[in-house]
Amino acid sequence: MGSLVDPAFVQAPEHRPKPTAPEAAVGIPLIDLSPILHSPIPAAGGAAPPAISRLLAEVEAACLEWGFFQVINHGVPSELLDNIMAASKGFFALPAEEKRQVRRDDVNPLGYYDVEHTKNVRDWKEVFDFVVEEPAVLPASAEPGADEFLPLRNRWPEYPPGFREACEKYAKAANELAFKLLELIALTLGLPANRLNGFFKDQSSFIRFNHYPPCPSPHLALGVGRHKDGGALTILAQDVGGLDVKRQSDGEWIRVKPIPNSYIINVGDIIQVWSNDKYQSAEHRVSVNSVGERFSIPFFFNPALYVMVQPLEELIDEEKRPAKYNAYNWGEFFKSRKNSNFKKLEMENTQIYHFKKAV
Ligand SMILES: O=C(O)CCC(=O)C(=O)O
Ligand SMILES: [Fe+2]
């Protein structure tokens, strides 16, 4: 095997992974969701039974200290994850011409893609994206070219058989978990459990299949370059390790240990803004290796494209806790990120600090 990779994949020296990611003695927190597996989430935190109050304290600490945690006893049936993992592996194993039948293009950002960039450096991976809820009717302005982002139409490959069904069943179950996590997070902010739910009517959530093939130069390239997720929450399934999280306390990159039938949850930029910086969206990246391939499936839980994102008014006090961000439109943000991942651009991609208020 050669030791050279195309220069498009090569990270700047300061962003290259170390040969071995440190095994942290204490990694991201592991949270057992069994208190909410069979009992409903209370409408307000004050009235919560002790097991749920303890759970809320764990979620709050994890969001404060890491912006990342793993969950077990999450209620997503394991066969749904097994089926979607098998569908993903079956799809990526198809010949390239077959995968290109459902290739992403300038008009529709969904489907197969193998030339993604993060911060303008190419990622060592191939992906397949589909939205969790397709809009019922195409907006009138969605003629090709009118706005390249409106027709969020899924593209379903013909093979492997059962692909679409596996995707749709998993999406439904993961979406239920996403709402539970959203409600827990609202409670940890001292808000009613359902305070954030309305933003997800007409949600723009999508599921991504990531396939990271073995890489001849894992010390030069990354599966996904360092980044923060722009949406509200991410629910990630991985088969083998490779995800590195930047620890907030000292900036060290920590490898997340795979735990069977668990999900890795991270707070995205939108929760950082809603919480007015109480919670931080943590930087993360994916390292690759020269021996084995890796598969992961993130569920990006995103509000409706028309939502204006801004610090929640209940958390703002003009005197003591002024809003740290100006409002921005999620659809615009999402579109600009998607475009910069699609094409290598000369400029920096959109980040929430661009909306930070001057102090
Ligand atoms: O593959 C992974 O573990 C994470 C991928 C990721 O961070 C992303 O797609 O945003
Ligand atoms: Fe990510």
From TrEMBL:
Q: Which InterPro entries match?
A: DIOX_N, IPNS-like_FE2OG_OXY, IPNS-like_sf, Oxoglu/Fe-dep_dioxygenase_dom
The record's SUPFAM superfamilies line, in alphabetical order, gives: Clavaminate synthase-like
Q: Using the UniProt annotation, give all residue ranges assigned to the region (Disordered).
A: 1-21
The name this protein carries in UniProt is: Probable 2-oxoglutarate-dependent dioxygenase ANS
Query: What keywords were assigned to this record?
Result: Dioxygenase, Iron, Metal-binding, Oxidoreductase
Q: Which residues form the Fe2OG dioxygenase domain?
A: 203-303
Q: Which GO terms describe its molecular function?
A: dioxygenase activity; metal ion binding
Q: Which organism is it from?
A: Phoenix dactylifera
Family, according to the entry, reads as follows:
Belongs to the iron/ascorbate-dependent oxidoreductase family.
